[in-house]
Amino acid sequence: MAQIALRRAARVLAAGGIVAYPTEAVYGLGCDPLDFDAVARLLALKRRPVEKGVILIGASFAQLEPWLLPLDAAQRARIGDTWPGPNTWLVPCRRSTPYWLRGAHDTLAVRVTAHPLAAALCRAFGGAIVSTSANLAGRSPARSALAVRSRLGSAVDLVLNGALGGQARPTTIRSLATGEIVRA
């Protein structure tokens, strides 16, 4: 059953849809990062300005690497020590990384997720996906499939039901350049 649901979710993503799925702490909303219309739809749904940027999650660093500038050994070790896990890093991104992903920044927020269902979704899709909390901007994030449906309704094309990863708060966000914690 789980494989069927994952294949269906991957098809929805590939067709420009929005999928809600459990992450380490809250339900996330995801879409194909290369599909401008899908990202624009997701941002409009959340009422989130494009200037803020979004997070990309992957099942492995290799799924995130195409978006990022090459990292030296020390940088790779720094982020690698925290992955997979509930740690998002602001990493210098390639010039080709679309504005709709990085926002008004020269970095991209990325994470190798430790959540088994979120990682399986990335593998089924074949790459990194956008990951932002399932909520309207300024509101508390959904922590269940039912909460996603009651708050966001049919604007979400598919909801993958599953348990959260046990974190009490959304992932920590750190700057790779400074080590500073941007969100605890």
Q: Key terms for this structure?
A:
alpha/beta; 9 strands; globular; 184 residues; 7 helices
Rg, Å, rounded:
15 Å
* Strand content range: 15-25%
Number of strands: 9
SSE sequence, one letter per element: HEEHEHHEHEHEHEEE
User: First CA to last CA: what distance?
Assistant: 36 Å
Largest sheet: 9 strands, mixed
For the largest sheet, list the strands in their spatial order: 7-1-2-6-3-5-4-8-9
**Number of helices in the DSSP assignment:** 7
> Can you tell me the overall shape?
globular
Q: Could you tell me the mean pLDDT?
A: 95
Low-confidence stretches: none
Structural class: alpha/beta
Helix content: 25-40%
The gist of it:
By secondary structure, the protein is of the alpha/beta class. The protein is built from seven helices and nine strands; from the N terminus they run αββαβααβαβαβαβββ. The chain has a nine-stranded mixed β-sheet with strand order 7-1-2-6-3-5-4-8-9.
Fold and architecture overview:
Helix 1 crosses helix 6 (116-125). 42% of the residues are buried. Helix content is 32%, strand content 21%. The longest helix has 13 residues, at 2-14. It has a nine-stranded mixed sheet with strand order 7-1-2-6-3-5-4-8-9. The chain has 184 residues and is of the alpha/beta class. A hairpin with a 5-residue loop joins strand 8 (172-175) and strand 9. The chain contains seven helices and nine strands; from the N terminus they run αββαβααβαβαβαβββ.
